[in-house]
Write a structure and sequence with these properties.
- The complex is a heterodimer of chains A (306) and B (244).
- Chain A has 306 residues and is α+β, with helices and mostly antiparallel strands.
- Chain A has helices spanning 11-23, 89-107, 116-119, 125-134, 148-158, 178-181, 243-255, 285-291, 295-304; strands spanning 2-6, 27-31, 38-45, 48-55, 58-61, 67-71, 111-113, 142-145, 161-164, 174-175, 192-196, 201-208, 211-219, 234-239, 260-267, 273-279.
- In chain A, α1 (11-23) crosses α9 (295-304).
- Chain A starts with a strand and ends with a helix.
- In chain B, the strands form 3 sheets. A 4-stranded parallel β-sheet of chain B has the order 2-1-6-7. In chain B, strands 10-9-11-12 form a 4-stranded antiparallel β-sheet.
- The radius of gyration of chain B is 19 Å and the shape is globular.
- The chains are: A alpha+beta (306), B alpha/beta (244).
- The interface between A and B is large, with 55 and 52 residues.
- β8 (142-145) of chain A pairs antiparallel with β3 of chain B, so a sheet runs across the interface.
Amino acid sequence: MILLCGIPSEGPMRRVANALDALGGPYVFLNQRRLDDVDLWYRIVQGELRGELRLGTVTYPLEGFRAVYWRLADVGQLPELRGMSHAAPRVRHARSLHDTLLRWIEIAPGRVVNRSGPMASNASKAWQMQRITRCGFKVPETLITNDPALVRDFCDRHGEVIFKSVSGNRSVVRTLGPEELGQLDRIRGCPTQFQAFVPGDNVRVHVIGSRALATHIDTAAVDYRYASRDGIDARLTPCELPEELVARCVALAADLELPFAGVDLKLTPEGEVFCFEVNPCPAFSYYEDHTEQAIAETLGRYLMEG
Amino acid sequence: MDQPLVLCERGDLPALRVYQWLRAAGLTSLELVTGDMLCQAILWEHRLGAAPASGRAQLADGRTLRTQGTGAVFNRLSSIQEASLARIRQEDRAYARDEMQALVASWLLSVEGLMLNRPTPDGLCGRWRSKGEWAMMAAAVGLRVCEVADGIFEEAAPFEDRMEGAALRVFVVAGRVVGAPDDDVAAAALALARQAGVGLLGLAFEIGEAGPTLVGVSLTPDLFLGGAPALLALRDALQPTAAG
């Protein structure tokens, strides 16, 4: 049995459920919108883990789950709980259930996409970059600083420079232009990440176990995720990568302990391959929408093989 | 600054006591830096790219920390506290905390030489693990482990809280095991530290008829609980010659 945890109507979740339906993979849904009637407990005795998940009137032994795919929204963002006090019983129940679920996910046997500890690597893009270089990828020249003079020197050396968050907080990647250069004093309070702009083609590689599906993104936008917001086109097409590069992406995801990962690459006109970051919780439906690549199906098969 | 370093929170009394003990025990070049000092650093510089990751931080008191050519680091800083960022506007403080934590995690990872313990993004002195995860890992390396129950509103006290009252305490300090009652426990403690990717680990046991049972694990153990052998093991690890 496969356990899906999240909001059933959310893009990636819905697609994985549909894929499992089509493949005949048995699953149950822990619907995050209906947490009031869910209970979870487990016990560990000398390395043996046993417990139960109750969904409404049906109780499942945890040891019966061979695989888990989860995408949980923040409890505070759930419409059912929005605006409620942290002390409200429904909120406390939901938070406690989340916490317990994440602790179990960390130690559950079988295939878990993904375990919560390794997913933290993306909470520091710079920390993750050091791991990326260990796997043989180039990373962009990067400076994190609160010193405007160092930034100006960095710009002089590298020409076009972008800036973005260091942490996992979502931020739009922006070019450092004359306006931002004039406001550099604002970084004194909080060090900021600057990177030499790498020209070339964006490629997103979805690694699923030992398989990889690559998507080429053709756009003039600095951050293709937000291209349409800026009125710029982004054309996504499936692409084939050299076997050696695919193997390196698979090895990188394995090194980060992420069975499912979104590896962001840039292929330069000179034939160099840069890796920017690895997304530990890819919202892959965006890529499937544009390319019809079988990401959900591949993920479904991976879960079924657990 | 190439001296050995103690990195901790301002109010971390066990770390401050260890710092004073180590200086009195001959490690006179030992420096102390707190999380507050890092957050109030005048200059941060951290570079990544084709060259090995590197950086420096200039503290408000004039000292400069460098990631290369440094001494060994005794790191008990678990996270960046929002309270250390009082100069940041309240509405921006949570974001600034995440950014500082992300920077410090990477900056510390790039420090050359010995560090007890190395950072991860979710734990600056080692990856945070639940009691259940420690219990599974400890059983896998052959330790007898107390039963762990977990569930909604039922999570037992974290393993970290069990060191003080334990009947038996074992410490792994840079590959040395202190306080183990026999070779099997020593080997298992060492294996657990290796599996967790840390050089410093405290293990708490209860003693029953069947022998010692693990009831607690800590990435930031109070080394005074291990007495002189634990403190000396740390001093040896931090000695400039040992840090290599």
